[in-house]
Amino acid sequence: MTSSAPSLNSHTALFGGTFDPIHDAHLAIARAARNEFALRRVLFVPAASPPHKSGLTVASYEDRVRMVELACADEPGFETSRIEQDAVPSYSILTIERLLAAGNGPLAFLIGADAFAEIRTWHRWREVVSLVEFIVVTRPGSVYNAPSEARVHELPGLELPVSSSEVREQIARGDTRIPVPEPVLHYIAQHHLYRR
Fold this sequence. Notes:
The chain is an alpha/beta fold. The protein is built from 7 helices and 7 strands. It has a single domain (2-190), classed as HUPs (Rossmann fold, 3-Layer(aba) Sandwich).
C-alpha cells in the first residue's frame, strides 16, 4: 500500500546506517522527511555491526556516533541513538523491538528505494513490515516491489548522488570541499579519520 504525504506527526522516523561518515545528503533526506510528513522526530541510529556490510566500516562505532551527534546538534527534531552499540549483528528487527519496548513508537522506517527493494532478504522481514511504516526515498528510475502488507509512503524527487565512500575518497585525496557539516569536518581532521 503506497500513499502520498499524510502527516506522521506522532511518528519517530528511524534512520539507520553506517554513517561512515554522515554527510550532507543524509541530512537533506532527514530534513525532507521531517518536513514532508510532519514527523515528531528523526532518530539517527548508527549501526554497530551492520549485517549487510560486515567488516566494511572504516571509522569506529564511537567515532561514527560522535559525528552523527555533531551533525544533528542544531537540527530541530533530530536525535542520535546508541541503541545498537551492543547489537551484534545490528539487525533492524532487533533495533525496532528495542525502540518500541522503550516507548519510542509509533515508528516509521526512513530508507532508500534501493535498500527497500531488498527487504525480503532481511532477518525476520515480515515482522519488520508489521511493526513499522516505511518512508521510501525514491529518485527517477527507482524500482522496488513492496510486500503487499507494507505501509509505504514515498519521498520522491531527491537527487543526492553523494555517498559516504565518495566522501572518504575526497578526504583521502586531501580535497577541501567536502559535503559534510563543518563540525563533522573538524572532527574528522582532529581524529585523522579516513586518511591514507
